């Protein structure tokens, strides 16, 4: 028997270390049964499913933002984040006049971007509020910065909707038993669980409830950015988050507007492919930078089924950290290929004043909307 | 009241009694569920059963709650219903307007409450097999194309019109003489949870990605839409209530 596989003994050994003068004492272990392998925390407590009388902001936490914004990590070392993202239905627009009832985390597609640091712990709470209309376009007391950012740039024209369905949350940034933490909860229920950001990266989160193709195509995904503990080797002047995804919509002959087109989703024939959830998201509100600045993009291809050949016209990626891990460094990349749910951090230096198109270089996708603009001002 | 009607129905030929009594006889037959379930490998056989022609309305359920006040929302034990049980009614024993009007389908009812109602009426909830059998026979009778069925269902799931439900049983009863099997609100069935095998383990279908293909004999839209109904039903808890989930009762022939 390998004694050190026993969580009890590991915990006891750590406690002893603490008593003996704090050598390697690890106060990162919070619950009975947690253990450390290679500096990473595993063995997290079981998820708790319960009912709560909660009707507050559907997104809570200071480090949750609306794309393309990324929250600044204004703290040293590691901390625990209390994060809430409720499931709500929302009518959203993804192209001019093309709106449908989306299933969302927090009310937008993609959902809020969570930013944490490698080693941070997240205590995540999610209530399935798909059976109540929730407004996200009016000032929200106690909500996260996400709301003010959505309200400043309401390109999806988010309107409350009701579409009761069971849902779940799967954070690719977490390392857990999915049948526990990512379990499906019915409308009205709440789930709470811990995960620890063991690895840096740009990660997808999504609903994993079957049929997962429909749940994700309906809009249930977003990004988690886990910044490396020691940071990146370069200093960025601008940071933006881009989430690419496909929509499979067809005219709804029964309710008006548009609806999910399962045949198209199975055939991988999207009606729209977007950056940040609208074909005009990065045209109406282009990214901004100045000549000579280093721009850092945190890019996630959420799929659900397509790849992205991510490219900036007129620039070369000076550094690419595939999956957002500093160990995976590439230099001088023209295009970065991202499969469904791959992410990367990409730096480029803005060559001169002008307009830089951001595209999926798979042009069938670019011409369905996977295109945007970075507008560069003169050298400062 | 409904108990009396059932007795009358049973002594009359079903075809005559159906629309008046509000109950229709569904003739059984050999039949396979459209979803491949791992817990029932044997060929399916559906016996004759009787089914309510229409969904239970708010008025029906108010009568029940008055007769059985232990099922009032302010008295029903918390383990038998979630916090939103009958929350759309203005009072614990009074109806209102809109979705709380007497002729709208009762919603925000738990599986426990639905079962208690049917028992009180001398019946029971239909089994999953019975309900799906009736649904398929209804579509066959009406010659609904599989794609049209799927498209309407996908539309309904994303936009069920929960804010303004229609009255139950509007117009003449179509097909087999059953109203609102699709398009108004979902319905509880007795055995609503799918069982999923996982090696030696079993799981009520709380599954994750990849738990779809093994349930589908065909990957066309109609099977996928049907699976969505099975899946969403399977993830309810017996105390769950929603604004788009009601029920009707079934009865065993004498």
Automatic annotation (TrEMBL), chain A:
Residue stretches making up the Plastocyanin-like domain: 91-137, 184-229
Alphabetical UniProt keywords: Copper, Metal-binding, Oxidoreductase, Signal
Signal peptide span: 1-25
Pfam hit, one: Cu-oxidase_3
Signal as UniProt keyword: yes
One annotated GO molecular function: oxidoreductase activity
InterPro entries: Cu-oxidase-like_N, Cu-oxidase_C, Cu-oxidase_fam, Cupredoxin
Full protein name: Nitrite reductase
Record organism: Wenzhouxiangella sediminis
Lineage per the UniProt record: Bacteria, Pseudomonadati, Pseudomonadota, Gammaproteobacteria, Chromatiales
């Amino acid at each position: 028997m390998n004694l050190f596989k026993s969580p009890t003994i590991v915990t006891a050994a750590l406690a002893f270390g603490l008593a003996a003068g704090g050598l390697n004492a690890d106060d990162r272990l919070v619950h009975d049964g947690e253990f450390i392998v290679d500096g990473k925390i595993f063995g997290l407590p079981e998820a708790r499913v319960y009912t709560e009388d909660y009707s507050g902001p559907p997104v809570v936490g200071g480090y949750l933002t609306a794309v393309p914004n990324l929250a600044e990590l204004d703290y040293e070392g590691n901390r625990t984040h209390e994060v809430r993202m409720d499931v709500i239905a929302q009518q959203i627009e993804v192209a001019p006049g093309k709106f449908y009832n989306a299933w969302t985390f927090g009310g937008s597609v993609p959902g809020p971007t969570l930013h944490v640091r490698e080693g941070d712990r997240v205590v995540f709470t999610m209530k399935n509020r798909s059976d109540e209309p929730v407004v996200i376009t009016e000032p929200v007391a106690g909500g996260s910065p996400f709301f003010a950012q959505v309200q400043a740039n309401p390109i999806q024209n988010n309107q409350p909707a009701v579409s009761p369905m069971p849902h779940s949350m799967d954070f690719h940034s977490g390392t857990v038993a999915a049948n526990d933490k990512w379990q499906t909860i019915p409308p009205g229920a709440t789930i709470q669980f811990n995960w620890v950001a063991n690895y840096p990266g740009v990660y997808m989160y999504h609903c994993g409830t079957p049929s997962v193709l429909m749940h994700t195509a309906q809009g249930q995904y977003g990004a988690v950015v886990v910044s490396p503990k020691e940071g990146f080797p370069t200093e960025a002047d601008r940071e933006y988050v881009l989430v690419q995804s496909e929509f499979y919509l067809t005219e709804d002959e029964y309710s008006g507007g548009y609806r999910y087109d399962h045949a198209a989703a199975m055939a991988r024939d999207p009606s729209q492919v977007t950056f940040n959830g609208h074909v005009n998201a990065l045209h109406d509100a282009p990214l901004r930078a100045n000549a000579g600045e280093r721009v850092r993009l945190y890019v996630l291809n959420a799929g659900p089924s397509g790849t992205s050949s991510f490219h900036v016209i007129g620039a070369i990626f000076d550094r690419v950290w595939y999956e957002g891990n500093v160990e995976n460094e590439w230099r001088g990349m023209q295009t970065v290929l991202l499969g469904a749910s791959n992410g990367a951090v990409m730096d480029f230096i803005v060559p001169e004043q002008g307009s830089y198109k951001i595209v999926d270089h798979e042009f069938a996708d670019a011409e369905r909307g996977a295109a945007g603009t970075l507008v560069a001002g003169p050298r400062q | 009241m409904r108990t009396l009607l059932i007795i009358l129905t049973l002594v009359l030929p079903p075809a005559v009694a159906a629309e008046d009594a509000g109950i229709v006889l569904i003739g059984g037959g050999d039949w396979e569920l459209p979803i491949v379930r791992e817990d029932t490998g044997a060929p399916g056989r559906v016996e004759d059963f009787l089914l309510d022609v229409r969904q239970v309305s708010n008025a029906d359920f108010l009568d029940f709650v008055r007769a059985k006040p232990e099922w009032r929302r302010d008295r029903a034990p918390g383990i038998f219903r979630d916090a939103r049980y009958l929350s759309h009614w203005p009072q614990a024993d009074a109806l209102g307007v809109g979705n709380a009007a007497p002729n709208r389908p009762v919603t925000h009812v738990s599986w426990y409450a639905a079962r208690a109602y049917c028992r009180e009426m001398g019946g029971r909830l239909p089994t999953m097999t019975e309900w799906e059998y009736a649904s398929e026979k209804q579509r066959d009778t009406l010659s609904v194309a599989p794609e049209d069925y799927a498209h309407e269902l996908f539309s309904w799931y994303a936009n069920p019109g929960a804010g303004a439900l229609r009255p139950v049983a509007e117009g003449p009863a179509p097909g087999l003489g059953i109203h609102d099997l699709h398009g108004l609100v979902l319905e509880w069935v007795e055995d609503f949870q799918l069982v999923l095998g996982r090696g030696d383990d079993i799981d009520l279908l709380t599954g994750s990605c990849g738990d779809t293909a093994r349930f589908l004999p065909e990957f066309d839209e109609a099977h996928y839409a049907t699976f969505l109904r099975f899946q969403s039903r399977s993830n309810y808890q017996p105390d769950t209530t929603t604004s788009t989930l009601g029920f009707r009762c079934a009865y065993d022939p004498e």
